[in-house]
Amino acid sequence: MTTPFGLSSTATTNTLVLGQKDLEIIQPPDDAISCLKFSPLSIPQTYLIASSWANDIRCWEIQSNGQSVAKAIQKHDAPILSCCWSEDGSKVFTAGCDKTAKMWDLQANTFVQIAAHDQPIRTIHYIQRPSYSCVMTGSWDRTVKFWDTRQATPLKQLALSERIYAADVFGPMAVITTADRNIQVYSLDQGPTEYKKIESLLKYQHRCVSIFTDKSKNPNGFAVGSIEGRVAIMYVETANPSVDNFTFKCHRSTPQPPTNTQDIFAVNDIAFHPIHGTLATVGSDGRYSFWDKDDRTKLKTSDVINDQSITCCTFDSRGQLF
């Protein structure tokens, strides 16, 4: 499985059908998955990467029939908490509990350190703008750093009020949320600059954040999920925030009589469909749900999967796979 990315793998594909159109990925990590990302539109093939608490980052090719082919694997010295792709699909970036971020050149199968923090790195994102490109890392050391992968020191470093718990990047916008539930929005076009600080609608710890776009595919807001089984939909610019911004409950059990108590589960990840703009949430109740934020309706909820928490989710860049 440690073959170079460009070579075919000897691993056989797994055709175990879980549902009508569900296929299980072969050779998954040996511990909890921390992050999932499909390859960008810039490459014709579809690849999936997964980082895990088993200290590794794995890559599979997803064939047109939905079957997977294991391609390659690399390791950190501690659990990996986040991963992302470069815009051209030639490189993968990882970050984790060993306080480092690394760059995986998939064609050359090289894996080199490109960044470091004083505490574990919770998030990593690739930024591609017309005038520059860089890698953004967010850490529990309360800093966000922006790196040119060819340099040993960051291009820019920003101090935040608390540990970074979640972040997202889309085009000219970055959103970061911290342990004290502060939300920072950054403009990226002329270099990373703070654009706005937004007060969260959620009263409990944030677990995830995901940027959404308008009909022209320009980022105009974000969804934040919390440990309280609730998601907030928030617009960056709105004339009526009390009307446009809202929260909804999710990943909770049905109230049971006579006390009508219910179990509440964390929202572990949020992903927006790249074409339709609907969103998916996954939770510690072992379910995934699809929502229409514009109509404020639930579209579908899955059955419990394997009686285990679902830690993360992602759509492919063409909107055909989840």
Write a brief structural summary:
The two termini are 24 Å apart.
Structural notes for this entry:
It is a single chain. A hairpin with a 5-residue loop joins strand 5 (80-85) and strand 6. The radius of gyration is 19 Å and the shape is globular. The strands form six sheets. It has a four-stranded antiparallel beta sheet with strand order 1-2-3-4, with no helix packed on it. It has one helix spanning 241-244, and strands spanning 33-38, 47-52, 56-62, 68-75, 80-85, 91-96, 100-105, 110-116, 121-129, 132-139, 143-147, 156-159, 164-170, 173-178, 182-187, 193-199, 206-213, 219-226, 230-235, 246-249, 267-272, 279-283, 288-292, 297-301. The chain is mainly beta and 322 residues long. 38% of the residues are buried. It contains one helix and 24 strands. Helices cover 1% and strands 47% of the residues. It has two domains: 1-159, YVTN repeat-like/Quinoprotein amine dehydrogenase (Methylamine Dehydrogenase, Chain H, 7 Propeller); 166-322, Methylamine Dehydrogenase, Chain H (7 Propeller). InterPro entries: WD40/YVTN_repeat-like_dom_sf (IPR015943), WD40_PAC1 (IPR020472), WD40_repeat_CS (IPR019775), WD40_repeat_dom_sf (IPR036322), WD40_rpt (IPR001680). Pfam families: WD40.
Topology, please?
Layout: E1 33-38, E2 47-52, E3 56-62, E4 68-75, E5 80-85, E6 91-96, E7 100-105, E8 110-116, E9 121-129, E10 132-139, E11 143-147, E12 156-159, E13 164-170, E14 173-178, E15 182-187, E16 193-199, E17 206-213, E18 219-226, E19 230-235, H1 241-244, E20 246-249, E21 267-272, E22 279-283, E23 288-292, E24 297-301
Antiparallel strand pairs: 1-2, 2-3, 3-4, 5-6, 6-7, 7-8, 9-10, 10-11, 11-12, 13-14, 14-15, 15-16, 17-18, 18-19, 19-20, 21-22, 22-23, 23-24
Protein name: mRNA export factor
Pfam families: WD40 (PF00400)
InterPro entries: WD40/YVTN_repeat-like_dom_sf, WD40_PAC1, WD40_repeat_CS, WD40_repeat_dom_sf, WD40_rpt
